[in-house]
Amino acid sequence: MLLVAVTLAVFWPVVHCDFLNYDDPDYFNANPHVQTGLTSANAAWAFSTGHAGNWHPLTWLSLMLDAEWSGPGPAGPHFTNLLFHTANTVLLFLLLRRLTAAAWRSALVAALFALHPLHVESVAWVAERKDVLSAFFGLLTLLAYTRYAQGRSAPNSQPSTLNYLLALFFFALGLMSKPMLVTLPFLMLLLDWWPLKRISGFRLPISGLKHLLLEKIPFFVLSAASCAVTFIVQQKSGAVAALVKIPMTGRLENALVSIARYLGKTFWPVSLASPYPLPGHWPVLTVLLAFALVAGLCVAAVGFRKRFPFAFTGWFWFAGMLVPVIGLIQVGNAALADRYTYLPLIGVFIILVWGTGEAVANWRLPRPVVAAITLLLLLAAGWRTRNQIGCWQNSGTLFTHTLAVTQNNYVAENNLGTWLSGTGHIPEAMDRFRRSLQIQPDNPDALFNLGNAFARLENWDEAITNYQRALQIAPAQADLLDNLGFALAAKKQFAEAVANFEAALKLDPDSADAHNNLATVLFIEHRYDEAARHYREALRLTPNDPVIFENLGDVLVRLGQIPDAVKCYQEALRLKPGDARAGAKLQSLGAAVPK
Fold first, then answer.
1. CA pair distance 10, 578, nearest whole angstrom
2. Which residues contact 162 (CB under 8 A, 6 or more apart)?
3. How far, CA to CA in Å, does 521 sit from each of 451, 486, 509, 516, 518?
4. pTM of model > 0.90
5. What would the pLDDT profile of 298-327 be if each residue is shown by its tens digit?
6. Which residues pair with 552 in a beta bridge?
7. Which long-range contacts (C-beta less than 8 Å, at least 24 apart) are formed by 73-76?
8. CB atoms < 10 A from the CB of 102, how many?
9. Percent of the chain scored above 90 by pLDDT?
C-alpha cells in the first residue's frame, strides 16, 4: 500500500498533461477507431491493422476503452497509464518477493522502478500505453512462470501445469501489447540460474539443460512469430527505411554507446529528452570506451556468477531486454529512448539493491545509516521525477526542453513548430520548420507542416510547392495528398483536388478529413449523391462533428430530402449550441430551432 500511495502521489501530475503532437494523434485524439470506442468493427480493425507501424491489438483495445469510458480528452488515458504503472510496481514487488523471499529488498527494487525519472516517458505519454501494458502482462508472465518453476520442486503447491499455461497466455497478451517482450524466454532462463536455482553451476547435466530449454520452446515460438509480424508491419510502414542509410557498423557503434548512455542516465538522470537525435557517427574514443565498459561488465558478471549470482542475472536482464530496441535493426532515427528502459532497468536495480545488501552484511554498516541513505535516494528520485513530469505538460514544454538539452534535433524543431502553429504563432512556427529542414532537408514532415503554415496564411502557391516537395520524398502519405487537394481546391483546381482526395482515401479509407473535403468539392460540382455518400462516411468516422452534419444537411436540401436535412441541422445545433448559421438554415426550412 505504501508503494501504491507513493507512486500515485509522485506521478499524479501526469493526469493534467495534454496530448502531444508526437504520435498521440495516431494513437488517440485523431484516430477515429479509438475515438469511437470499443465496437466490433473497431476490435476487428485492432487485430488487422499495422497502423503507426506496429501490430499491438491489445494496446488499441485498451485505448478504445479509455475513449469510451472517459471521453476524448487526455485525462482518462493518462490516468490509465498511471494505474498500469502503479500495478506494475506492485507486481514487481510480488514477483521478487516470491522469487527471493526478501521482502524489503524486493520493495526497494519496486520503489526504484516506480520513482525513477527514466520511466516518466512511459507514463506521461499516451502513445506509450503499449509500454506499461506490455510490462503488466510481462510481469504477470514471470509471476506465473515462477509459480510453475517452484511448483515442480514442491509437489504440494498449486498445479504447475496451470501456472505454465497462464504464463504462456500472459506472454501472448504481452506480445500483443508491444513486441519488446520477445526476449522474455531468455529472461526465464536467467531466473532459472538465480534466484530459482534450477541450474547449479554452468556444468549442468545435458538432460537437465534439455528439459529447461524444451519447456521454453512454446515461448520461443511466440517470440519468433512476434518478430516476424513486427518486421513485416514496420517494413510496410516504412519504419525500417533507415536501414539503407545506416550501415551495420554504425548501428553496432550506436548500440554500444546507447548501453553506456542508459547506464549513465540511470545513475545521473539529467538532460532527459524525447527524442534523442541519432548522430551521423560516434567518435572512435567514445565507441572504444563504451565497448570497454560493456565488455568489462559482461566479463565481471560471468566471472563473479557464483559469488554474486544476482549480478549475473541482473546484468543480462538489463542488456538482454535492450536487444530488441538497441538499434541493430534500426527503426526510425532516434539514438535511444527513455521508454526502452522501462523493464530492462529492473536488472540494474536488482544488482544495486542486492549488492548493497551484501555490503551492509559484510561491512556491518549501521542499519539506521543505510535506511537514511536509502530514504534520501528515493526522495531524490521522486523529486527528479516530478521535475521531469513538468517537461511533459504539453508539446511546447516537451520540445522546448528537448531542444535545450540536445543538438541538431530536427524532429523536436518540427514538433515545436507544429505546437506553435496550433497556438496561432505562425511566423515562429515557420522559423522552426525551416530550422528542421536546415538540419534534415529531406524531412517530409517539416515540408508538410511548412505547407500547412502557408495554407493558414492562404498562400496557396507556396503551400502547394511544399506539399509537392514532401510527396516526392514520401509519396504514400494520405494526409499530404489530402492537404494538397485542399490547397488545389482553394485555387479552384477541382479536378486535381478530387484526384488527390481519392488517392488519399485509397491509402487511408478511414480519413474523415479526406471524405469531408472530397464531399465539399463534389458539392461544388453539383455531384450531390456522391457528396452525401462521403459526408455520411465522414460522420461514421467522426460522429460528433457539427460541421459535417451541417454540410450533409446542405447536400440533402439540394437532393430534396428536407426532413433528413432538418435532422442534420438539429444535430449540428445539439453538438454546437447557438450556431447561428445552422439555426438560420433550420428557420429557412420552416423548422423550429431547438433551445
1. 42
2. none
3. 20, 9, 18, 9, 5
4. yes
5. 999 999 999 999 999 999 999 999 999 998
6. none
7. 74/17, 74/18, 74/19, 74/29, 74/126, 75/15, 75/16
8. 16
9. 84
Cell of 167: 504464463
- Cis amide bond preceding 279, omega within 30: no
Distance CA 496, CA 407 (A): 41
Residues with Cβ < 8 Å from 90, sequence gap 6 or more? 3, 4, 110
446 grid coordinates: 517539416
Q: For the beta carbon of residue 325, count every other beta carbon within 10 angstroms.
A: 20
Whether 384 is in a domain gets the answer yes
Do 503 and 519 form a contact (C-beta atoms < 8 A)?
no
Closest CA to 535 of 564, 494, 563: 564
Find cell 513548430 and name the residue. 417
Residue span of the structural domain in which 26 resides: 2-390
Per-residue pLDDT tens for 514-533? 999 999 999 999 999 999 99
pLDDT of residue 368: 86
Number of domains in the chain: 1
Q: Quick check: is 447 in a domain?
A: no
529 within some domain: no
Q: Write out the three cell numbers for 279.
A: 548522430
Distance (Å, whole) CA 268 – CA 279: 22
The b-or-e profile of 484-509 (16+ CB within 10 A means b, else e) is bbbbbbeeebeeebbebbebbbebbe
Cell numbers at residue 595, please?
A: 433551445
| Domain annotation covers residue 527 | no
Nearest to 352 by CA among 372, 380, 376, 377: 377
Residue 277: strand pairing partners: 334
